[in-house]
Amino acid sequence: SLSMNQSRIQELAELDKKYFLHPTTAPKTHAEEGPKIMFSEGKGIFVNDMNGDSYIDGVSMLWNVNLGHGQLELAETAKEQMSKLAYSSSFIGYSNEPAVRLAEKLVSLAPGDLNSVFYTSGGSEANDTAFKLARFYWELKGKPQKRKFIALEDAYHGVTIAAQTATSIPNFHTFSNSGISDVFHAKPHLTNCELGDKSDPNYEGCIRDIIEKEGADTIAGIIMEPIQGSGGVHIPPDGYLQAVRELCDELGILFIADEVITGFGRTGLMFGVENWDVVPDLLCFAKGVTSGYAQLGGVLIRQHIRDTIVQYEGVLSHGFTYSGHATACAVALKNIEIIERDNIVVNAKMMEQELKKGFEYLKSKHPMVTKTRAIGLLSAIELYENSDTNKPFDISVKATAQVGEECFKRKLMIRPIRVGEGKNIIAIAPPLVINKQEIEQ
Ligand code: PLP
């Protein structure tokens, strides 16, 4: 009955406040106020809370539920695999069929000669793994001094200590003051500078400038999201990723693409780098590989790195208990099968156009909606106090947070992002199964 449900919700809220320390949540406020919402079920782009209220999931939760909620084929697959063999170790040469089949599938989808995979349980672990593989590669190449990494300003790469160091969104970077020392942050998306134009006024602090100052013989790799997600959905200009690829080739540095958000159709192509025909040396993935139905991530590795690694006669002493998790891999395989069968990547590309139409409508209707952008179903709206004069909000005005709250009250979940001086960005990244009518809604 209704009142039984109400008392259950209340009980859960009390238990939550007391026992559940939430990620990326203000602990003091949470301990006082309890959970903001208690999700209970979902279907497609919609999720319900325990009160039975239905919300539009405008950001695929954490940019990961790409096939939408309540996908029963994935549930069936998990059940089937768990009933046979939920999990087995991949250490010391042990293996299982879903992990092997998925590896073959991933390699067939990946661009260029990204020809093998190392599995992790998520995106941060994938990035940490990429850093360790890059250093290992250079050790094997007889260049152990190549240990430093370059990441971009506004980057989000996760929260394990190395990934967090590469992350440059200030709150994550400073949390508990943890980090490794060998990561440098470069100004993003300066094509000319990366191609070597020293007369460009932005040259100082670009990737090439940092490499020159630190010495190419000390740099192991450059990590970047093909399109920055949590930092504000920043799409690089055409030519930028190619310029970075060229720079890496010229100076002998590994290019690590963090495709944790952009992988598996999000941008209207299977992988984000394909928008610019670039093949990274290491490609990190997670999230969309299972649409969030199981915890899985990994690193795809180019042939030349793989060739170097397999010469090593010792043990590759790195791996997670859940590397090659049988159930997670089975779910990923089914997820990819559905993406291909239902033309989900094409749908993401087509719905980009619908989203853009909607953005034009909003621009015409609302003086705050000033800049908009979308690549596939990765999109953002930038709010200004006045779009005619490009006048940004006073830094004290929490415009995006307010918009986020108001949308939430109206049963729409979007992602307010506030980065730097007066930049108010709202990210929208719905499940890739969304249709025209739902976008209009
Ligand atoms: N890299 C990018 C680009 C991400 O967006 C995220 C998560 O949002 C991560 C890495 C970290 O992944 P995880 O939270 O699975 O560790």
Strand content: 15-25%
Count of discrete domains: 2
**By CATH's scheme, which homologous superfamily of the largest domain applies?**
Type I PLP-dependent aspartate aminotransferase-like (Major domain)
Outline the biggest β-sheet.
Answer: 7 strands, mixed
What is the CATH fold-level name of the largest domain? Aspartate Aminotransferase, domain 2
Spans of at least 5 consecutive residues whose pLDDT stays below 50 are none
Distance, first to last CA: 31 Å
Radius of gyration: 22 Å
Number of helices: 16
Which architecture name of the largest domain does CATH use? 3-Layer(aba) Sandwich
Q: Let me know the average pLDDT.
A: 96
Ligands present: pyridoxal-5'-phosphate
Write down how many β-strands occur, each being a DSSP E stretch of 2 or more residues. 15
Helix share of residues? 25-40%
Give the strand line-up of the largest sheet: 4-10-9-8-7-5-6
**Classification by helices and strands:** alpha/beta
> What top-tier CATH class of the largest domain fits best?
Alpha Beta
Can you describe what's shown?
It is a single chain. It is globular and about 70 Å long. It has helices at 2-19, 27-33, 60-63, 72-85, 97-109, 123-140, 161-166, 170-174, 191-194, 207-214, 240-251, 303-309, 326-341, 344-365, 399-409, 436-440, and strands at 39-43, 46-49, 54-57, 114-120, 148-152, 183-186, 219-224, 254-258, 282-285, 297-302, 369-375, 378-383, 412-413, 415-419, 423-428. The two termini are 31 Å apart. The mean pLDDT is 96. Helix 5 runs parallel beside helix 13. It folds into two domains: 37-70 and 343-440, Aspartate Aminotransferase, domain 1 (Alpha-Beta Complex); 73-341, Type I PLP-dependent aspartate aminotransferase-like (Major domain) (Aspartate Aminotransferase, domain 2), CATH 3.40.640.10. By secondary structure, the protein is an alpha/beta fold. The strands form three sheets. A seven-stranded mixed sheet has the order 4-10-9-8-7-5-6, with helices on both faces. Strands 1-2-3-13 form a four-stranded mixed sheet. The longest helix has 22 residues, at 344-365. 39% of the residues lie in helices and 17% in strands. The chain has 16 helices and 15 strands. It binds pyridoxal-5'-phosphate. Pyridoxal-5'-phosphate (PLP) binds next to helix 6. One of its GO terms (molecular function) is transaminase activity. Belongs to the class-III pyridoxal-phosphate-dependent aminotransferase family. This is Aminotransferase class III-fold pyridoxal phosphate-dependent enzyme. It comes from Aquibacillus halophilus. Keywords: Aminotransferase, Pyridoxal phosphate, Transferase.
